[in-house]
Amino acid sequence: MSQEARTTEPPRPPSSPGERLPLPRPSGRATASGLLAAVLGRIAPNLLIRIAGRTTEAGIPPFVDLLRIAELSGNLPATDPSSTPAALLTRFPHLAEVTFEDVVVPGPHGPVRARTYRPPHPNGIGLVWVHGGAFIGGDLDRADAHWPSLEFAHRGIRVVSLDYRHAVRGVHYPVPSDDVLAGWRWAASHARELGVAPGALHLGGSSIGGNLAAGVAKRLRDSRPGTDTIPAGLVLVTPFLHPFGAPWPTGMLERMRAATTNAVVSPEDLTHMAWNYAGRRSVLDDPYAFPANGDLTGLPPTLVITEEIDTIRTSGEDFAERLRAADVPAVVRMTPGAAHSSMSRPAEPTAQVTLDAVAEHLLGRWSPRAA
Description:
Blueprint: E1 7-8, H1 28-40, H2 45-52, H3 63-73, H4 85-91, E2 99-105, E3 112-118, E4 126-130, H5 143-154, E5 158-162, H6 175-189, H7 191-194, E6 201-206, H8 208-222, E7 234-237, E8 248-249, H9 250-258, H10 267-278, E9 302-309, H11 313-325, E10 330-339, H12 349-362
Parallel strand pairs: 4-5, 4-6, 6-7, 7-9, 9-10
Antiparallel strand pairs: 1-8, 2-3, 3-5
Helix pairs in contact: 1-3, 6-8
Keywords: Hydrolase
GO molecular function, one term: hydrolase activity
Domain Alpha/beta hydrolase fold-3: 127-342
């Protein structure tokens, strides 16, 4: 059988709905790297890989090792010094015109961190934005949170960027989703104070943030009528919406990895990421934990951004196709030559392409309704 014919299959979950989802054991060196990350805070990616001691074919530690690092250090180490908040202002000096403020939002599991961004020339459009991080990392300072928030605000959009509790140390669904729901409700209740016009508050996110945004949109749709504000639209950038990593032909995966120096995540690692978030077998079927499950009717008009060199792109493509089948306006735009979560790497030209596509949509210069 040729490599192109062979597929890399994700692992299968246990059959019992209440059964905990098993993850492989992390390497011993993942413990050492997690402890070092807790002490040093930020380390270079090649050092992280060397300390972790083993890598996948993607050139990164397996998900279970990253999980161990996150559990010990409290976060995944930031690995790109060019994407720190200070470095962003050096690279993009126009962003200094945007002011921002950290706020604390009450949530059912305790305070939720958020950051509001004030545009120099507001236009009444608002966006609640959720960062990625494999459910186990990320924060308000990471590039896929801070950089797009600054850029969108510079174009007149009032942004509320949300943090959420990571799926580490016994935390699983619905806790991160509950945090994002609390953040959305806070932003919606403060929309007038924030300068957002009625019916102009959107919800979106990058990677896992796209999962959380779509799941919260479904929760809002299904809440008691009149109790919640429904997003004007959804913006899902390289979202992971299914409870498994889609199978890929082995030859295609190899070509993807040859085409980029960035990570191309395996279906196995994507599935382990989903299992860690879910915690139990029954959650893999939950329509809010994994928004591709269940009924999609009644969701807001949706923009899905995918990236060419990304095993997650099929998740967004399938979701958009099913939205259209449910009579929800939805369009997919793919960023050519981009690897997963390009907005985490602002120095790459593809990151600007992805960001511009989102901004054009929010500003009404291009939208699913008009497409």
